Amino acid sequence: MAENRLDRSEETRAKTERPKAWQPPVMLPDPKPIDGFSFHWVRVAMQGQADAANVSSKLREGWEPCRAKDHPEIQLVMVENDRFKDNVVIGGLMLCKAPVELVEQRTEYYQTQTAGQMQAVDSQLMRENDARMPLFNTQKSEVSFGKG
């Protein structure tokens, strides 16, 4: 019995997909990934005032500015600051990169600092525990998006 069906190779999902919805452009586009490097936007100005202390701090941490010619995928309309004219700067933020190993070491350092602080808080909390009014240490965090 012959069925009235399309050949499997002629079936496509394009007919069943929803049409793409318009989305506003992103303020800070993602650069093309480079193996071994992580990217980060560093504040160079705030409310029209240069933030040299922040830039200096980030450069000392190991972040290096990305040159605009190395990232043609990011469209620049105008140069916002003559000091960083060869770099990617959008809305007072400059694109920087650092080796992934350095970023992982930085993350591990801050996680260790946080764990130590939490341990100090917990030990202080339990030191002040009174049997007549017991304290309960329930550490729980919850992340939710778009309730409403």
Spell out the key features of this protein.
15% strand; alpha+beta; 2 helices; 148 residues
Structure description:
This protein is an alpha+beta fold and 148 residues long. The protein contains two helices and six strands. It has helices spanning 52-61, 100-127, and strands at residues 37-43, 45-46, 49-50, 64-65, 89-90, 93-99. The strands form two sheets. Strands 1, 4, 5 and 6 form a four-stranded antiparallel beta sheet that branches. The protein has a two-stranded antiparallel sheet with strand order 2-3.
Radius of gyration using CA atoms only: 26 Å
Distance between the terminal alpha carbons, to the nearest Å?
A: 53 Å
Percent of residues in helices comes to: 25-40%
What share of the residues does DSSP label as strand, in percent? 5-15%
Shape: flat
**Largest sheet: number of strands, sense, barrel closure:** 4 strands, antiparallel
The whole-number mean of residue pLDDT values reads: 80
Number of strands: 6
Per DSSP, the total helix count is 2
H/E element sequence: EEEHEEEH
Broad structural category: alpha+beta
Which spans of ≥5 residues are poorly predicted at pLDDT below 50?
none
